[in-house]
Amino acid sequence: MTTVVLADDHPLVRQGLRAVFDSTTDIQVVAEAEDGLEAVRLCVEHRPDVVLMDLQMPVLHGLEATGQVRAKSPGTAVLVLTMFDDDDTVFAAVSAGAAGYLLKGSDGGDIVAAVRAAAAGQAVFGAALAQRMQSWFARSAERSDKPPFPELTARERDILNGVAGGLTNAEIGASLFLSPKTVANNVTTILDKLHVAHRTEAIVKARDAGLGRGVRDDG
Questions:
Q1: 95 in helix, strand or coil?
Q2: Which of 92, 143, 184, 219 is least surrounded by CB atoms within 10 angstroms?
Q3: Which CATH architecture has domain 2-139?
């Protein structure tokens, strides 16, 4: 039996997904989360095979939740189910550890097949999306070896790397021997220098530049 956690802040979406899986004999929904933080908690508690993760959620954005699930419940495959298909969001989700990416409105049969594939350890991407990813990674390989975001100081870049890896300010501070308040002040400066309004936007930019990978590899 493949176990699944549903993470979406819209009850009707969760209800529809549960109905789809209830029609199968090999997939069981074990829990539902209405925000990103709850999704992480439920994945740690239930250790599901797959979590269907919306991105635009309250409390903790789906990108950050994806990174935390992969760190705290590594046996859980994250299958993103969202309405956003822009390149930055897709690649940020992949960089955060998502095993697959589906758009809301996908056929129920496609979602069921994607969950089965993700549970079996397969990557789940449509042909068009896979081609876009291939082109993007090819362009990434051609980028120079210069450090990303030259407008940032070395410390700010280290802090941004932690942010992109899904760490809290306290966790970043502990790793860099800084107080959480100092980290928070630096994050505010980083957002200003990157010309973004929110932490999530900085995460997207940072992961697009290759930051945040392997930050939680030590578990």
A1: helix
A2: 219
A3: 3-Layer(aba) Sandwich (3.40)
Average pLDDT score, the chain: 88
pLDDT, tens digit, for every residue of 206-215? 998 888 876 7
pLDDT value at position 131?
64
Q: How far apart are CA 173 and CA 152, in angstroms?
A: 18
Give alpha helix (H) positions in 73-153.
Answer: 87-96, 108-119, 127-141
- 47-56 pLDDT, tens digit per residue, is 999 999 999 9
Give the model confidence (pLDDT) of 8-46 as tens digits. 999 999 999 999 999 999 999 999 999 999 999 999 999
Rg (CA), the chain: 18
Q: How far is CA 133 from CA 81, 84, 89, 106, 143, in A?
A: 17, 15, 12, 20, 16
Q: What is residue 125's three-state secondary structure?
A: coil
* 48 SS3 class: coil
How far is residue 180 CA from its own chain's centroid? 23
Per CATH, which fold does 154-208 belong to?
A: Arc Repressor Mutant, subunit A (1.10.10)
